[in-house]
């Protein structure tokens, strides 16, 4: 079942164009979104959240168009750009109290479950957390309002190897709970570890959207890693 669908999404800027982007996300799967800097990853994600107005195309969640249903849909999805950068000197409990008021479906039991799972102390402040724990705090807020889809823009960027390892293991745990995860990254080794599907964008256009196994088979050469495939494809585009 496809829980998110994009069809022919376009956005034009003076120096860049998102070109008829189409793909879908499967329920309960981890999808990695790859492409070099400036390829259109963040523009696509902002389009998916209606943070920018697209020129054309359709975006839907749970079989319902985003246009006209944004408020209801955003109650069911979570978004993170990575680490927490707001209220750095407020206690986690105080930030949660404010966030809780925005979500009628806030699930206190889920909040307590993930608070323990993530090993977060709600008496701490974001400024006191490691980068990895800040990412987990963002995820905690999303999951506590029963987010069924997580859309994450470079969530592992800037994390040390240990924190990245923890986060990828967390993704696998969330997948087991039926959460759909879509995350952009340029760290292809992360995708080799946890992704079910790969979406590859280059110069504003989707070049591949398939299972990781199919991507490796169709795009790769003998013995090539995902990183080697990605680098070769990018060289071919620019040759």
Low-confidence spans: pLDDT under 50, at least 5 residues?
A: none
CATH architecture: 3-Layer(aba) Sandwich
The sequence of SSEs as H and E is: EEEHEEHEHHHEHEHEEHH
Mean pLDDT: 90
The strand order across the widest sheet is: 6-7-8-3-9-10
| CATH overall fold name | Rossmann fold
Strand content: 25-35%
Count helical runs.
9
Count of distinct structural domains: 1
Shape: globular
Structural class assignment: alpha/beta
Major sheet summary line: 6 strands, mixed
**Radius of gyration computed on alpha carbons:** 18 Å
What percent of the residues sit in helical stretches (DSSP H or I)? 25-40%
For the record, the CATH class is: Alpha Beta
| Record field, number of beta strands | 10
Describe this structure in words.
This protein is of the alpha/beta class and 239 residues long. It has one domain: P-loop containing nucleotide triphosphate hydrolases (Rossmann fold, 3-Layer(aba) Sandwich), CATH 3.40.50. It is 38% helix and 26% strand. It contains 9 helices and 10 strands. The chain has helices spanning 41-48, 70-74, 92-100, 108-118, 131-144, 161-176, 188-194, 212-219, 226-238; strands at 2-12, 17-26, 30-34, 56-61, 64-65, 77-80, 149-153, 180-184, 197-202, 205-211. It has a 6-stranded mixed beta sheet, sandwiched between helices. It is globular, with a radius of gyration of 18 Å. The model has no long low-confidence stretch (mean pLDDT 90).
């Amino acid at each position: 079942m496809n829980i998110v669908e994009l069809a022919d999404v376009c956005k034009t800027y003076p120096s860049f164009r998102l070109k008829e982007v189409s793909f879908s996300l499967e329920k309960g799967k981890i999808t990695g979104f790859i492409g070099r800097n400036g390829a259109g990853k963040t523009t696509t994600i902002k389009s998916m959240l209606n943070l920018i107005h697209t020129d054309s195309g359709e975006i839907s969640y749970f079989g319902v168009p985003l246009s006209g249903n944004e408020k209801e849909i955003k109650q069911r999805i979570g978004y993170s750009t990575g680490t927490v950068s707001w209220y750095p000197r407020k206690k986690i409990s105080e930030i949660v109290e404010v966030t809780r008021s925005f979500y009628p479906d806030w699930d206190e039991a889920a909040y307590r479950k993930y608070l323990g799972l993530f090993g977060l102390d709600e008496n701490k402040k974001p400024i006191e957390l490691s980068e990895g724990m800040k990412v987990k705090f963002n995820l905690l807020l999303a999951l506590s309002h029963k987010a069924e889809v997580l859309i994450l823009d470079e969530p592992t960027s800037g994390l040390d190897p240990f924190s990245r390892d923890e986060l990828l293991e967390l993704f696998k745990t969330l997948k087991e709970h039926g959460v759909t995860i879509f995350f952009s990254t340029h760290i292809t080794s992360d995708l080799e570890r946890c992704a079910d599907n790969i979406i590859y964008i280059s110069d504003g256009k989707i070049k591949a959207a398939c299972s990781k196994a199919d991507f490796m088979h169709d795009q790769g050469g003998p013995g090539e890693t995902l990183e080697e495939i990605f680098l070769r494809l990018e060289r071919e585009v620019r040759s």
